[in-house]
Amino acid sequence: MACFLGFDGGGTKTECVALDESGALIGQGQAGPSNPLRIGVAPALDALLAAGGDALRSLEGKSRVVRAVCAGIAGAARPGVAEKMREQFVQAFPQARVRVCTDLEVALEAAGHVGPAVVLIAGTGSAAIGRNRQGQVVRAGGYGPQIGDEGSAYDIGRRAVAAALRARDAVGPETALTEKILPTIACSSWEELATRITEKPDLVFPQLFPVVLESSAASDAVASALLSQAADDLVALAVSLVKRLGLLSDDFLFAKWGGVFGRSPILDRRVEEGILAVAPGARFGPLPMNPARAAAELARTMHFARAQLDLPRANASVRRRAGPKRRPRRNSNASSRRAAGRFAGAPR
Hints:
There is one protein chain. The protein is α/β, with parallel strands linked by helices. The protein has helices at about 35-40, 40-55, 80-90, 105-110, 155-170, 175-185, 190-200, 210-215, 220-245, 265-280, 290-320, 330-345, and strands at about 1-10, 15-20, 25-30, 65-75, 95-100, 115-120, 125-130, 135-140, 250-255, 280-285. The chain has two domains: about 1-110 and about 290-305, Nucleotidyltransferase, domain 5; about 115-285, Nucleotidyltransferase, domain 5. The strands form two sheets. The protein has a five-stranded mixed sheet. A hairpin with a 4-residue loop joins strand 2 and strand 3. Helix 8 (about 210-215) packs across helix 9 (about 220-245).
């Protein structure tokens, strides 16, 4: 029996969903981060294949052949990245058609096939993607931690460290973050923390997001200001996209996705208020479908679309092997009599 795999890979985790030919969910898997720009191509592939293996193991020994794969991966928009990932998927699933795209694309697919929609993503990184009524698709952000990712968990953690150090040096307001950051990262000194940040910043900054949440909930003004700043940055990202799509006066779905959302009333409320101030027709709601499931649906659609394209070719091949269609043979006696009559002087 055939099955179809969909992946949603980001900077924190990777999810995989397996569907059967009818579109029923038959397996799920999860693994660590798979953004190749943050952790490298080889570790990212290991995480993707681990999630896929986890999903296939959940089939409880049933024989399934993977016929199509769609992988939405953060960082896949960079030149050459998608092709490298695709080559590895082809080796892992030799009987499958493979498509590698960005995690933004599968998130937009999860928002529905038609109609205007905007998806704002904030997890380890941040980005936004949207579609208008004419089908035009626009994206914003997603440039990585060195030059972007404003409002992400990484960005909030980085700003938290900077605020704590300003307080420590008495050049900024006091904050509980100064006392909480080192124990959270299991560092004995700020110098050790600086070394860890230099070596592996992805293992430091996103881990501090919960500390900022906790401090804000305890009425720490600095932590609350960090969350408000993150919300404003995310609003700016989304509003730029809304304007480019011409959705300022339109009704559209606005979905928030990623680990930053749903954890801070300050941040969530400020994002929604900022969007509604510019686009009052925005309807806030969850994604109708998990992005990994949407990717699996794309894989399934891709397989059957190819099957429909291959059918006329197969029929043509059968006709060629059968040879040209023969005309029916005439009655030989009748033909002979007509010929004899003509040559005997019968009327023409």
